[in-house]
Write a structure and sequence with these properties.
mainly alpha
Length: about 375
Amino acid sequence: MNKPPRVGLRLTVLVPAGVAVLAGLDGALLLLGLPAPVRSARLEQVHGPLMVLGFVGTVVALERAVAVGGRRALLAPACLAAGALLLLSPAPVVAGAVALLGGTVGLCAIYAVVWRRQPSTALAVQALGAGLAVVAAGLWARGVAVPHLAPALAGFLVLTVAGERLELGRVGGLPRRAEDAVLGCAVAWWVAAVAGLLWPGPAHVALGAVLLVLVAVLVRHDVARRTVRGARLPRFMAVAMLGGYAWLAVAGAIWLAAGRVLSGPAYDAVLHAVFLGFVVSMLMAHAPVVLPAVVRRPLPYRPVMYAPLVLLHVTLALRLLVGDAHGQAWAVRAGGVGNVVALLSFLALAAGSVLLGPATRERAAGPAPAAANVATPAGAAS
C-alpha cells in the first residue's frame, strides 16, 4: 500500500482551501448587499463553485487522497486548490473552472482506485456524487449559469456524505435494503439533475421527492439516533448530523413544492438549507475525525463547539423561516451575517484547538476509546 503523503504536502493543498472559504464568505456578504473586507464583483460571480468545489471539494479530495496514499493521489485536491486560487486571481474565470474540472475528474480516479481494492454500495454512492461534481464543473466551464447547476453541486456533497454514513451503517449491521434504497436515490438524483437541464420544472419536483426519501432512509438507519443520547464528542457529532438532516428535508420540501427555483427567496432558501444547514453541519460533525487524519494532529472536543453550531442553526432559521418565507430583507441579511460568523468562529475554534492540543485533564485521562468510531468517514477509516 502506498504511504500517505507527508503532512507538509497536505498543508500545501489545505491552505488554498482556507483562502477559498474566506473569499467565499466575503462574497456571501457582498451578495447580501453588505460591507465586506474585499469588494469585488468577481467574488460574487464565483461564490458558489468557489465554496462547493474550491473549499469543500478540496477538503473531500484531500481526505480521500490521504486514505489512498501516494503523491499522485494529491493531484486531485491540488487541482481543486489551484482552481480556487485561479478563480481569485486576475486569470480568466474559465481557467479556474478548467482546473476545478481536472480536480473533480481526479477525485473520480481516486474512487476508481478504491473500488478496485474493495467495491461497495457506499463507495458507489460517493462515486456517483463525484460524477455530479464533474458534470457541474464541466458545464460551468462551458458557461452554464450556476443556478442551473445547483442540483449537481448539491448532489456532489449530499451523496458524498450519504455514502460515508452508509459505510458507517454497514459496521452496525445496516440492512441490505437500506443500502439499495440509498443507491437508488443516488441514481435517481443523477437522472433528475441531468433532466433538470432540459425540463427543470418536473425534474426539480422529482429531485425534491428523491431528497426526502434519502433523508428518511438515512435518518432511520444512522447511528446518530443512538449516539445523541451519549455525551461529549459522540453527542456533539450526533446533534450536528441530525440538525443537518432536518435542513436537508427542508430543501427537499421546497424543491417538491416549488419545482423550478433559479432565483428569488425559494432559491436562496433551498441552496442555503443544503450548503449551510446540511453541509456545514456535517463539516462540524466530522471535523474532529477528518482534520486529525489530514494534519496528523488531534482536534480535541470542547463544549464550546456547540456555540458556532447553535449560532449556525438559529441564524439560518432566521434567514429562511423569517427572511425568505416572509420577504423580510433584514432577516435575510442578519441571518446571513450570523451564518458567516458561525462558520468563521468554528474554523477559528478548530484551528485553535489543534494548536493547543488536548486539555490537561484529557491528556491525563488518555484518548476517548470510542469517540473516533462514532462518525468516522469512509475515507478516513480506509
